[in-house]
Amino acid sequence: MENVLRPVIVVGGSVVLTLLVGCAVDRLLRRADGRHHETPLWGLLRRGRVAFQLVLCTAMLRGSYAEAKLLEEHSIGIGRILTLTLIGSTAWLVVRIAAAAVETSYTRYATAHRDPARVRRVRTQVSLIQRVVSAIVGVVAVAAMLLTFPAMRAAGASLLASAGVLGIVAGVAAQSTLSNLFAGLQIAFGDMVRLGDTVVVDGEWGTVDEITLTFLTVRTWDERRITMPVSYFTSKPFENWSRGSAQMTGIVFFHVDHSAPVEAMREKLRDILRECPAWDGRDYGLAVTDSTPNTMQVRALVTAKDADDIWTVRVTVRERMMRWLTEDHPYALPRVNMADAAPPPGRTLRSRRRDQDGAATHPFEPSRTGTGRG
């Protein structure tokens, strides 16, 4: 009877005690989260309750397994499995706690500072720091697991003896990986590019969606994801529209006829911008910037608070200005010189043709009504 009750008491007691302690800790964290709304630390720590319970249960089973006298012929294997589980669950718990601390620090900083550029910079640094901590904890956990095997401990001396040669070989083989790793750290703390920045790379316009230690993802306006090594941003030029102030100035070009009413276009531009919510009201303008034998180029200048709004303002101005020219001033649209077009206001098509016929008469040609020579 003792052989049956002993394993049940040891295993069952460990499980029951783990559940009781886990529920008590979770309730305390929930109360602390309800009392302190200004910090998300306690709520984030609750995400690690499963890892905490696993660590507690495994530790109690590992410490009391010898007293259970269960499957004694497999005690070495079971003990090693419990040890590996304890190491893995401890690493999981440490990663959860580190993530909660880092996320809390970022939330406090974002609440205290209203500058979007600085907040994105800190967000980028926090994300990379969290990934570095997770990678370090993972490497240490795997190394600790390997050292639990006697064969691995015996091979440790020979591995240390050849560490120099292996380090050189690994450095040459992973040269690109190491360069990306250092480039990721340079981006994080050099404030070159941040999460949420609007960038233009290889002619593609998009927003920085993810930054890791080795690669960076740009989400384009049409929902595509462009993934590139972070070393690209430290070795090649790129446009960062969010660097400094997010305010932007946009340009819209129109190619119109020489008879286009520039002053009326300038007033229409003002009316369009007043009805456009994306315009920030800082500045606007319209000027003739170039001329060709057939058309003249008119540039409209508009402003907005960020890259998304400047795109909205530009397409709105282009669409409504072309519609207005088509409906109210069709003569201002570009045309082939040989084709008939609508005359400008104040002149009829008949008077215009009469002027053209008079200009085509040769100066020495006799008039249709006179008899003398010119």
Question: Would you mind describing this structure in some detail?
Answer:
By secondary structure, the chain is of the alpha+beta class. It is built from 12 helices and 8 strands. It has a 5-stranded antiparallel sheet. Strands 6-8-7 form a 3-stranded antiparallel sheet, covered by helices on one side. The longest helix has 38 residues. It starts with a helix and ends in a 14-residue tail after the last helix.
The overall pLDDT, averaged over residues, is: 75
How far the N terminus sits from the C terminus, by CA atoms, comes to 141 Å
Q: Indicate the radius of gyration in whole angstroms.
A: 37 Å
**Strand elements, count:** 8
Number of helices: 12
Structural class: alpha+beta
H and E string: HHHHHHHHEEEEHEEHEEHH
Strand order of the largest sheet: 4-3-2-1-5
Task: Summarize the amount of helix as a percent range.
Answer: 55-70%
Q: In percent terms, what proportion of residues is strand?
A: 5-15%
Features of the shown structure:
374 residues, alpha+beta, five-stranded antiparallel sheet, three-stranded antiparallel sheet, 12 helices, 15% strand, disordered C terminus
Give a concise summary:
With about 375 residues, the chain is α+β, with helices and mostly antiparallel strands. The chain has helices at about 1-35, 40-45, 50-70, 75-110, 115-145, 150-160, 165-175, 175-190, 230-235, 260-275, 305-330, 350-360; strands spanning about 200, 205-210, 215-220, 225-230, 240, 250-255, 280-290, 295-305. The chain is built from twelve helices and eight strands.
